[in-house]
Amino acid sequence: MSLQIRIPPVLRPSVGGARQVEVAGATLREALDDLFAQFPAVQPQIVDGEGQINRFVNVYVDNEDVRLGQGLDTPVADGGTIIVLPAMAGGSVFPPNVCRGGGDILGAIGGTPLVELPHLRPEGGARVWAKLEMLNPSGSIKDRVALSLIEAAEAEGRLTPGSGQVVMEPTSGNTGIALAMICAVRGYRFRAVMPESATTERVQQISMYGAEIVFSPGELGSNGGVALARELAAADPSVYMPFQYANPENPGAHYRTTGPEILEALDGKVDAFVAGLGTGGTLMGVGRALREANPDVQIVAAEPLQGESVMGLRSLEDGYTPEILDVTQLDRKLLVTNTESVLTMRQALRREGIWIGVSCGAALSVALRVAGEMAPDQNVVTVFADGGARYASAGLFEERDGEDLEELMEDRLWW
Amino acid sequence: MVDGAPLVLPRALRDELVAHARAGLPNEACGILGGRDGVVERFYPAVNGEPSPFFYTIESQDLLRILGEIERDFGVDPVAEDVEEAVAAIYHSHVESPAFPSRTDVEIAHWPDAAYVIVSLGAEPPDVRAFMIRDGRIERRAIVEA
């Protein structure tokens, strides 16, 4: 008994370059098993973990797609030919109201709109665009990261959905809210370690999803939260700590989703990308995706002045540098003061009708500066990581007579 | 980001693609462009096996039929030989979004040696662009008429 399997170009590297492989068997299943025994590398390219033919692979016996007949039980005859052909398939971006694959709220993560900010565009400068990440289900860009962190741990077998295992993370808020939501849906217990100076809204929103909160000393900021979480995780090995500051899934989420979505929306034409420096995940992941499409793109970090603590942003001069942050991948770091950030945040509200917080105000302020240096046919993109509602209690949205923003912000750590 | 030799797509064939994309509305349309050395000679319209405004897959029996026609027309079996010897490009339409590969397009691009031609009906006149998609990376490929 012998028959041939035709190997398409994309699979040839897995079978030593062969265009066809001789196999033995009485059914398609046996013939494929023989192929996989000879060339194990080709197996995952043709079938999934359960042995079923991958959705985007067509397999034909005697020129009939086996899916239309007996599938893997299709009999094969001596001297016959099996053809394997990858599907020619694809699609445009899914609209926000269609969740990929159905299922639950997690399907609504990502696919956020990219809007232009024509009313704030500097005269004669580049067009300015913002990705509205506050429209993710838990209200921030961190939904993308948290989903990646949890799904990677599930794929590695460290977490099992529905198990009630404890997931713990030091978080300035948004990652905590996102993890709290995802853990609620996937059946884990979530414990957030956060500075006691976190805003009431943030604490409430995390607890609302059923998560526990462990407070770290407010005056130590996010670095204090990181230290405490590390201590607690080291003391209890049953706790899973994804640790977004060092986990490649953090930039990975942006490389796979945020970056390509921006490229698709602007037809691949992005000249500068500006984001605040938190964990560095957005800048690293989006930056890498944009640079692959355009090596000349400028990746710009908006950084608070040393000693000033804009919510969620860090100054590289102030201590801990996240492991995932490779500063050589940044083209520029532009400093921004608290005052500038707050004033720009108010402009976004009054002129573009977009309610953002201070850290997005900082990123937008830098994006407008960069746009002012560029040409009218260029595009500057920033991300609005979350919305202003999360900072409502900070009371910075309305101007007060004789206010001194620096003084107002000085005595508090802004989260 | 324009790399490599341009894809030659004669005006008449480009017009055929656009007409086919329009006829497929509200769903995405798809097909194969037969040709050698990056020169498109013939358009083979295909059946979208999972018709949707956001998705296409060349129906599996139709795919085999078209590859058979290409073998007859070009004297090269694109399945047995290197596909680029007779398949210049795989085409599909985007009904609204730009002519740039989407995440879905990149994730399931399994034909590294064929160009991917996208017709966007979101622009007027419709935008037609070509890309090479290899290992998750997108390279723009210029289109010339002759």
Task: Write a structural description.
The complex is a heterodimer of chains A (415) and B (146). Chain A has helices at 28-38, 43-46, 142-155, 174-186, 200-208, 221-235, 249-265, 281-293, 338-352, 358-372, 405-410, and strands at 3-6, 20-23, 57-61, 64-65, 81-86, 89-90, 114-116, 127-132, 166-170, 189-195, 212-216, 272-276, 298-304, 332-336, 379-384. Chain A is of the alpha/beta class. In chain A, strand 10, helix 5 and strand 11 (212-216) form a beta-alpha-beta unit. In chain A, 49% of the residues are buried. Chain B has a six-stranded mixed β-sheet with strand order 3-2-5-6-7-8, sandwiched between helices. In chain B, strands 1-9 form a two-stranded parallel ribbon. Chain B is 23% helix and 33% strand. The longest helix of chain B is centred in the middle third of the chain and has 15 residues, at 60-74. With 146 residues, chain B is an alpha/beta fold. Chain B has helices at residues 11-23, 60-74, 103-107; strands at residues 7-8, 30-36, 39-46, 56-57, 87-94, 115-120, 127-134, 137-141, 143-144. Chain B has one domain: Cytidine Deaminase, domain 2. In chain B, 49% of the residues are buried. The chains are: A alpha/beta (415), B alpha/beta (146). Chains A and B meet through strand 4, strand 5, strand 6 and helix 7 of A and strand 4, helix 2, strand 5, helix 3 and strand 8 of B. Strand 6 of chain A pairs antiparallel with strand 4 of chain B.
Number of strands of chain B: 9
Oligomeric state, counting identical vs distinct chains: heterodimer
> Largest protein interface?
A-B, 40 and 48 residues
Largest sheet of chain A: 6 strands, mixed
Radius of gyration of chain A: 25 Å
> What would you call the structural class of chain A?
alpha/beta
N-to-C SSE series of chain B?
Answer: EHEEEHEHEEEE
The largest beta-sheet of chain B arranges its strands as 3-2-5-6-7-8
The ordered H/E elements of chain A are: EEHHEEEEEEHEHEHEHHEHEEHHEH
Q: State the fourth-level CATH superfamily of chain B.
A: Cytidine Deaminase, domain 2
Low-confidence stretches of chain A: 411-415
Mean pLDDT of chain B: 90
**What is the fold named in CATH at topology level of chain B?**
Cytidine Deaminase, domain 2
Q: Return the CATH class of the largest domain in chain A.
A: Alpha Beta
Count, helices of chain B:
3
CATH architecture of the largest domain in chain A: 3-Layer(aba) Sandwich
Runs of chain B in which pLDDT lies below 50 for 5 or more consecutive residues are: none
